[in-house]
Write a structure and sequence with these properties.
Layout lengths: L1 H22 L3 H23 L5 H18 L1 H16 L8 H13 L2 H13 L3 H21 L2 H18 L1 H4 L5 H22 L16 H5 L4
Amino acid sequence: MLGTIVNALAVIAGTFIGLLLKKGLPEKISDVVMKGVALCVLYIGISSSLSGTNALIAILSIVVGAVIGSLLDIDRRLNSLGELAERKLSKDDGKTSIAEGFVSASLLFCVGSMAIVGSIQSGLTGNHEMIYTKSMLDGISAIIFASTLGVGVFLSAAAVLVYQGIIVLCAQWVQPFLSDYVVAEMTCVGGLLIIALALNMLGVTKLKTANYLPAVFIPIILCMFM
């Protein structure tokens, strides 16, 4: 778990730095930076979505995932969690919600292949090199996200700890199901979700991105038959 703990701490450290920068940014500059970050997130999403090779798996994953997420009403639950955290932990600026920062950062930190493959290596061999590299990248990303989306990014450290921690602890059991093919398709679906949140950040759409989160895991099942 050492690599995962370091990853979570990197996100926390990056968030604190980003929050300090946020306080010194005028509203006009903050808005411009926010849109610039959204464009970078869009690029990351497009790049990740090109990892897949089977469009049907991506389509079915999004559809099934959206149905499951809507039935569970994940978006409402995360927003409720964000509102609770806002009341307990901080005073938000009214421009961005804690839930938005939490979901956006968590997606970016958790859906990539480095999170999956690195966690498996960490759990099976104790080699944390890939996770350490990811930690550096996530720390830098956390600075940028926190400077625009606020304290909600801090909560994404918990998502990283839980998500990657589960993979590390269950590495010997999940490895047979996470072939390169499966990881590529999961990364593709995750990339589509990142594109969705980038469009939300740009104000183009108002998609309930969190309701699509189950879609990331659907390829694990679909790849067994397709």
